[in-house]
Please model this.
Amino acid sequence: MVHLTFYAALLSGIATTIAAPTRRSMVVHESRELPLYFAHAGAPNPDTTLNLRIALTANDRNGLEQKLWDVSTPGSALYGQHLSFDETKAFAAPHPDTVQAVTSWLNENNITSVSTSGAFDEWLKFSVPVSTANSLFNANYQLYTEIGGPTQLTRTLAYSIPADLQQHINLIHPSTDFVRQIKGAKLGGPVPNSNSNTARALAAPASCNSVVTPACLQAMYGIPTTKATQTKNTIGVTGFVDEWPQTADMAAFLTKLNTAVPSDTLWTEKNVDFGVDPQHPGDAGLEANLDTQYTIGLANGVPVTYYSVGLGFTDGIEGFLDVMNFFNALPTPDNVLTTSYGLDEASISTSLANQLCDAYMAAGARGVSVLFASGDGGVAGAQSQNCTTFQPAFPSGCPFLTSVGATQNTTETAASFTSGGFSNYWTRPSYQTAAVNEYLSTLGETYPGLYNNTGRGFPDVSAQGINVEIINAGESITAIGTSCSSPIFASVIGLINDRLIAAKKPPLGFLNPFLYANPSAFTDITTGENPGCGTNGFSAGVGWDPISGLGTPLFDKLLAAAGV
Model:
């Protein structure tokens, strides 16, 4: 009996040892310096709850990228054969072993309330006190406040993960990201003078030098006025920071500026993060009205979906991640998705930037043309700021989307505020290698060390972006920014997709390989600069350049290039 008790006690001790969590070997996964536009604001209460997410590695991320190139590159045997949701998920979802490995580690540390999220179940979500997060990730979460701004964050400048889980974890979020509140279009004003402009094949009324309307764009770019016929072909518009389009403003806009579109034409609303769309003149949003009026009002007959992203986001990046999780989960996503907001690339970590960029890649593989305004800070980033080196905008540097810059005047010159340059996070994709190398050969040794000369160049294309007329809160006003340019270009692609689908062909999907293969389908913009960081910025020139991209669209030539 004594011996049995001894062995029972021994076995009990072994069981206790096995059950106790063991500290794994940890490695630093991400670290950074505090951005200049944030200041330390003290330590948080250790009991403050942090809502965290772990991004799990995809089952076959590289396989999905190859599929994107296959279905998006003209001349490929698979061109236009876009993936279904299930086919995309087979690549993008984490392997069950990955889910099990990371979940087990969390369980070992008494974190048992864990749920999956994301379009492809690629995120694990859980909530823990700050003290637990610090211990779990060898982190030091602190309070930070934006200098001269409203943003307050709880972030860490470094964190670690178990060495044996590195192949399973992309990032912990939020952690090392310092994102300021995003901004949309601005009110227009006097048009800056330009001494030299690009001659163009299509003329437009002289009044378009002062105020840009749908009629101006139809004349300049050859955009058809006839109604689209394919109701399943749609354009998606994202809206953030309590920007809401107004039905009364839409009716007034169509009545005044494009009577070919019935004045009662509206968008379909989808809400993310408790988004809403209140209908009162005091709720009118300049950006939201701009984006919906220049998709509905320009792409005559193409249905528009408005994604209202509310302030209930918990992704730490203004809802950018949440809206893509929502969008990519749709069984039938819009054929075009345009966004007129952006961030500075340096404000988010490379891991998070890649995670979002891969979300755009997944959309592209499914046949979605993802468009973003390139930003309004010249070479100083998405929004102008003090800088000593050029600041790329995000997500324009992502190689899996189309970045849209701005032009002005009827003969068109590049707008000086257009954010353009080269990414510090992504290398140059093959579809633009020749075009960008040609530009760099003319740039020579200008600006040594101020930009990454091996990075992905942006913008890809341009469209009008100064003094674009809209109706906002019942008043006729003008807007300025690349925010104007992205929905305009989205309308061009939406109308081309209409013709393709009517001809029993697939939509264009991810655009860039097609666009760079057809530079003659654009009016080349050869004048203009985008100053910033104490310099004149980059100059427009013959061919692609990092202020106007390939140039502005010529509808008939793009349509012919698409094979319609």
Q: What stands out?
A: The radius of gyration is 25 Å. DSSP finds 14 helices and 26 strands in the chain. Residues 209-561 form a domain with the Rossmann fold fold (CATH 3.40.50.200). The first strand starts at residue 26 and ends at 31.
